[in-house]
Amino acid sequence: MAIKISSVYVGDGQVELAHEPSKGKILTDLPADNGGKGRTFSPTDLVAAALSSCILTIMAKAAERDKIDLTGAKLEIEKHMSDKPRRVGKLVGTVTLPAHLTQNSKDKLAAFIKACPVHQSLHPQTVIDIKVQ
Predict the structure, then answer these.
(1) Are 51 and 31 members of one domain?
(2) Residues 33, 46: one domain?
(3) pLDDT band of 1, cuts 50, 70, 90
(4) CA-CA distance, 100 to 121, in Å (whole number)?
(5) 111 CB contacts (<8 Å, ≥6 apart)?
C-alpha cells in the first residue's frame, strides 16, 4: 500500500509535509547544528521520532494480544549525528514500561524493538541501542 506525502519548501529553512490520507501536516526546520534555526523537528529528528513511535506502537500491538495495558509506556531517545557522510550515526534510548508488568512481559516486549519496520529500514551502520526498564 502506497501512502503519499507531499513536501513544500516554505522558506527560511522550513519544509511543510502533508500526509495525504489524514490531511495532517508537520513542519520541519533546518537544525541549528547545520546552520539553521532549529525551531522545530529537523528531518533527522523525525528519524528518531519515527523509531520511537514505531517501537511503542509495535509493543502496544503485541501487548494488546496478551491483554496487557501499555498505557503510559514511554521511550526517550537521543539522536547522535555523524560526519562524512553527515547522517544519523547513533540512536540511544530507554523504554520505560508500566510498573505492573512482570519481568517476563518486559523481556517479551523488548524483543519487538528490532521487529519495528523503522528499525529494519535504517542503515546497517546506524547504531541502535534501546534498553527496556
Answers:
(1) no
(2) no
(3) confident
(4) 32
(5) none
From residue 4, give the alpha-carbon distance in Å to each of 16, 17, 29, 129.
14, 10, 21, 31
In the numeric block, the cell 509506556 is attached to 73
What pLDDT score does 113 carry? 93
Phi/psi at 69 (5° precision): -90, 115
- Residue 46 sits in the same domain as residue 17: no
Residues 128 and 65 in one domain: yes
Domain that holds residue 88: 42-132
Which amino acid belongs to residue 3?
I
**What is the length of the chain?**
133
**pLDDT, tens only, 31-75:** 998 999 999 999 999 999 999 999 999 999 999 999 999 999 999
